[in-house]
Write a sequence for this structure.
């Protein structure tokens, strides 16, 4: 395991993982293969661009011929697949690209890994494959999958293909299922960077429904360390959850974020809920702890550290929010119904 193909490496987690690999493994070569969709951004990799161990190639994981050529030319022995369409709200508006990339693209990479006899194929998956998790339970890797959004269904399909390639062809695979990541370089459609940057712009923070949905917000580099641990110590054919092992309500996340910014709670605006919104995700992380990994930040520390990064890095997010993002924001939030302030009765009359 020495020559890595990091698909989707110009996105949020992939770019953080590239930083992690180059910093911790001096003998590794890293090829980023990325289509550069709206979410891909070479600014995420700007500070490694001069590293001789790093190469960037623009390409689509659905393009089997180019994938094969890159694997041969770059002598790839390991694929870590981050490439995906990743935003639940976009999957509700338009699922097509999710099926293409997250399902068909995964198949193309698996076939290439099989054809060229790679040492490892690692699939980056999500806790959303478990669907809504009732109070009192935390998802185990052995739990049945029960995806409820087009995004979650496409990621689940990818996982099932990976498992099938292990069972059928003994392809050396591993899967990791991460909870919500936050930190540097996250595209500001996702809730934490959206809310920090909206607050910095003096705009409302659109909280879906009552804001009591629960998520496990983890620091992205803790997730990257967990993936590294799975790659180096995980058992073939196995799946590992990665998170903080703690979950908080969205409203609590918003309050921590506003406190860190010293911004007023009056920026909170409850809006019409997301259709099929999963109320709670929660992962049991004991299996990966058993391999000697542990998260270094709880949700609150991760949120505070993330807020500080966006405050210090306006160069990164301001151009994104001034570009095509404005169209998306208008489409997603422009006509969204604003709800009565929570806890207050509608005015009589
Ligand atoms: P992201 O949206 O920030 O980045 C995705 C990257 O994939 C982009 O660089 C994009 O250009 C690239 N890409 C998309 N389609 C492609 C294609 N067909 N071919 C090549 N490249 C393509 O995503 P992220 O948040 O960094 O997520 C990375 C992975 O982690 C995804 O598989 C996602 O499902 C998973 N995940 C994300 C989270 C989270 O909280 N963000 C949590 C758990 C798991
Ligand atoms: P998101 O970052 O989209 O991640 P996911 O849906 O994959 O967990 O959303 C995280 C939580 O924040 C989720 O419960 C939905 C909620 N949310 C809002 O309340 N308002 C928003 O504008 C967005 C984007 C999300």
């Amino acid at each position: 395991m020495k020559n890595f193909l990091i698909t989707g490496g110009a996105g949020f987690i992939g770019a953080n993982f590239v930083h992690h690999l180059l910093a911790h493994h001096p003998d590794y070569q890293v090829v980023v293969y990325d289509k550069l969709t709206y979410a891909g951004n070479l600014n995420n990799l700007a500070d490694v661009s001069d590293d001789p161990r790093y190469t960037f190639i623009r390409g689509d994981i659905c393009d089997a011929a180019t994938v094969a050529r890159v694997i041969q030319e770059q002598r790839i022995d390991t694929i870590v697949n981050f490439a995906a369409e990743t935003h639940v709200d976009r999957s509700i508006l338009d699922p097509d690209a999710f099926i293409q990339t997250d399902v068909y693209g995964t198949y193309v990479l698996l076939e290439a890994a099989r054809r060229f006899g790679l040492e490892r194929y690692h699939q980056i998956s999500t806790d959303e494959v478990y669907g809504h998790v009732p109070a009192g339970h935390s998802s185990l890797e052995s739990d049945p999958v029960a995806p409820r959004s087009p995004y979650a269904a496409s990621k689940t399909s990818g996982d099932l293909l990976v498992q099938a390639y292990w069972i059928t062809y003994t392809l050396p695979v591993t899967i990791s299922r991460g909870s919500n990541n936050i930190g540097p370089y996250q595209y500001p459609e996702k809730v934490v960077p959206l809310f920090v940057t909206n607050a910095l712009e003096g705009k409302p923070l659109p909280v879906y429904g009552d804001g009591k949905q629960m998520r496990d917000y983890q620091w992205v580099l803790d997730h990257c360390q967990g993936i590294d641990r799975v790659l180096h110590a995980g058992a073939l054919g196995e799946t590992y959850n990665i998170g903080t092992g703690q979950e908080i309500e969205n409203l609590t996340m918003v309050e921590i974020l506003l406190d860190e910014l010293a911004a007023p709670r009056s920026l909170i605006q409850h809006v019409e809920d997301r259709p099929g919104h999963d109320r709670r995700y929660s992962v049991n992380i004991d299996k990966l702890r058993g391999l000697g990994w542990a998260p270094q930040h709880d949700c609150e520390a991760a949120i505070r550290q993330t807020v500080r990064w966006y405050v210090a890095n306006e160069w990164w997010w301001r151009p994104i929010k001034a570009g095509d993002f404005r169209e998306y924001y208008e489409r997603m939030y422009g006509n969204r119904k604003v709800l009565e302030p929570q806890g207050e009765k509608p005015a009589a009359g």
The pocket of thymidine-5'-diphosphate (ligand 2) is lined by residues 88, 180, 190-191, 194, 206-208, 213, 215, 250 (CB under 6 Å). The longest helix spans residues 96-115.
